[in-house]
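Box 4.2: Ligand-aware structure prediction
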Amino acid sequence: MRKWHNARGEGKVFSFDVVDEHQGEIRLTCFNQVAEKFEPMVQVGGVYVISKGSLKPKRKEFNNTNSDYEISLELSSVVEECSEEVDIPRVIYQFSKVRDLQEMDFGSVMDICGIPETIGEAAVIMRRDGTETQKRTMTVVDDSGCSVEVTAWGTIGAETIPQLEQMFQQGLRPVVAFKGLRLGNFGGRSLSTISSSQINIDPEVPEAAAVRNWYAQGGAQNKTSLTTAYGGRADKKCTFGMLKDEQSSGSLPGTLFLQVTGTISFIRSDSGVMYPACPRMNGERACNKKMRQEGQDEKWYCEKCQSESPTVDWRYIFSILAMDHTSACWLSLFNEAGESIFGMTANQLKDLQDNNTLEYERVVSAANFKTFHFKVRVAEDTYNDERPALMRCGALSALP
Ligand SMILES: [Zn+2]
């Protein structure tokens, strides 16, 4: 179940994919009350008789079932547990070879059957909405002789990945089937789970036997990695060109930290480069919400703290266009980055702006064409994985 918010309001959506005994597959989707009604009833691996849903064409970019349609359920729809014994396959795969990912479009969703060769540590990632999610990255190779990084997000693989690690410790390298991975261009080409993804160890499919034989004969000794540049790890160096691809592909959920070296080509300063922040302490951290001046005595007022203050703390917030030899990107900068760029605190610069306009303008324009290492935070800005992620950049620090 996912919650979504947009300009028209908010709601909940729940979807699940079903397979039948004729190898048919279809996605069922329900919203709001309907989602609340059916979500507790449906279990992965359960067998159900479903009726009174309505059929509509599927949105291909988000749905890799083998049907051209999806079913939406209403409150009047019926989902009943099936009491009869039926022989229904648990998962239907349409495997792609890792090598073929080179020709596939970013955003495609596919199934992979391969052998994980490395499993990274679990990392906790902070989402932009403040919630946390977990990710595990594996390198997976198959009998096409290519390997790719696969990142499992959230609870996907929460049971299978620890099992895999145990098998690794025993020196085993089992075949794993990944159902429903999305192709992204993070670090060349890489795959990520989406909410409907599944990870199954030693699947009973013919492809698994072929991969197992190939691996046992040493096939993986000469392999080509499709994920190269900075795949999977934090604080990797990249270029603005790579950053821009990352922004437009929206391939990665969660948050990444990347290092880019670039030159400032423009500072957007028409509406100022700082804001009046609330200095009131909330525990160890200052409130920092934007204050407004009101009343005839021009006192500063903080909406959040609901209190007045005779003084404010000026903090930097502005955007710059930064570039390197590959491309240019807009970055949002905050207080610490501003201090590095202007060489003084926002309070000091505010003082110049009020009392020595010429010097203020000189300081701001002097920062143009300086080169910095930017630590850029690229964050997902999406409420469910059924729409492409919007990414945002923020320079956390800029070091000359
Ligand atoms: Zn405040």
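In the box above, the bound molecule is zinc ion. The chain has three domains: 2-81, 95-225, 236-273+317-399.
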